[in-house]
Write a structure and sequence with these properties.
This protein is mainly alpha-helical. The protein has helices spanning 2-27, 31-45, 50-61, 65-81, 85-109, 130-149, 153-176, 182-205. It comes from Lactobacillus selangorensis.
Length: 218
């Protein structure tokens, strides 16, 4: 248990440190941020084609606020139906509170979005990516819930793999559709993962992360 707790603290510290480095680099317009963004854009969006563009536009819509809110509502209602109020609050803490704090950071940094043609509508500022933050907080929270609830190892691995793919695809889609720089996406990922670890540490210290045990009355 102590080893797991130490790993969580280490991951939290690493994620927040890297997020802070990206924030500092963006605010000070450092050369390594520009190099990172140029390289990432070339790799992800350097060879577009119509089929891939349609796919990426669809994937990026899966990370839209309305989609994440709808999925979070469905998941929360299911958890409440199963009398898992602690897990429902864990999901809401991550998707609600930490996602909102990410929007506050956006207003502080005020980084403009890429000045090229956007393939989808995107308003507001650019760093950190709200889609990237929301993806890791929502699907990451689901991964933690799955680890505590799904006993069948094949189902558990399959669901976790699917969730990881969604995080990855949503992240790269934001660069492909030209609404974020790679550093925005990385910033959202590191901020979101660090916040996810923080919430897990809080719940673990409060002895709330118990195995998912459906109520007999459910």
């Amino acid at each position: 248990m102590m080893a797991q707790q130490q790993r969580r603290w280490s991951l939290l510290a690493i994620c927040y440190f890297l997020f802070g480095c990206l924030w500092w680099g963006i605010v000070h317009h450092t050369g390594w941020i520009h190099a990172l963004d140029r390289f990432g854009i070339a790799v992800i969006a350097g060879h577009p084609n119509p089929a891939l563009t349609k796919f990426m536009v669809f994937i990026t819509s899966c990370g839209n606020t309305i989609t994440v809110v709808a999925l979070t509502t469905i998941a929360t209602l299911f958890l409440l139906y199963m009398h898992q109020t602690t897990w429902a609050s864990f999901l809401l803490l991550n998707v609600g509170v930490f996602s909102y704090l990410g929007t506050v950071i956006k207003k502080i940094v005020q980084r403009p979005r890429p000045s090229v043609h956007h393939l989808v509508y995107a308003g507001g500022f650019s760093f950190p990516s709200g889609h990237s933050t929301g993806a890791i907080l929502f699907y990451g929270a689901l991964i933690i819930i799955i680890l505590h609830s799904v006993q069948n190892k094949h189902w558990r691995r399959g669901l976790i793999t699917l969730a990881c793919f969604m995080i990855f695809l949503i992240d790269i889609s934001r660069v492909y559709v030209h609404v974020h720089y790679p550093s925005d996406v990385l910033g959202g990922f590191f901020y979101g993962l660090g916040s996810l670890m923080l919430s897990e540490i809080i719940y673990q210290n409060l002895h709330l992360l118990n195995p998912f045990t459906p109520s007999k009355n459910a």
